[in-house]
Amino acid sequence: MNLIAGIEVKTLIVGFLIVALVWALNQLFQAGKLAKHPIVIRFVDRLPHSRLINNNIEPSEILELQDELARYDRMYLTWTIRQAISFAISKEIKAVVRKNHMTINDVDQLGGLEFEFFLKKLFEGKGYEVELTKGSGDQGVDLILYQGRRKIAVQAKRYSPSQRVGVTAVQEVCTGKISTIVLKHTL
Description:
Blueprint: H1 2-34, H2 38-46, H3 49-54, H4 59-72, H5 78-99, H6 104-108, H7 112-125, E1 129-132, E2 143-147, E3 150-154, H8 167-175
Antiparallel strand pairs: 1-2, 2-3
């Protein structure tokens, strides 16, 4: 009797996990469709670059967007809306990068946050997982690259050829190290 009950419990757990997985995939599918919704696109278009790059969306904005979508379409979960915004932001940024085959002169025209985002996309294209730091309190580290067990701290400096990166910048990165910092990667 206990063996049968044990098998039934395992079957129930597996069934629950399958239902949860199907639900999560459905939510991702809905988020992908929602990312193309005019209300979501308009919301993303209004975001300033700094918030767009960091995907910095306030919970209150998600709730306002949820209310607006409910008035014109239907009710969506806040998680689905947040994911849809992430998809829309990613699509927007990829379109900008594709549209603007960037030359070194183009890179020279980027602002600080735009330059960091450019580096993020560049390193992602080279197979790294990239995390942008918050900006303040990061001890000079602007990006953290992950590849396997390696962590690489990057301090982004976009100086003109006549300027050089000083000792202070290197000291800031060393101060901001996570565990071991490898400062040998160049573009």
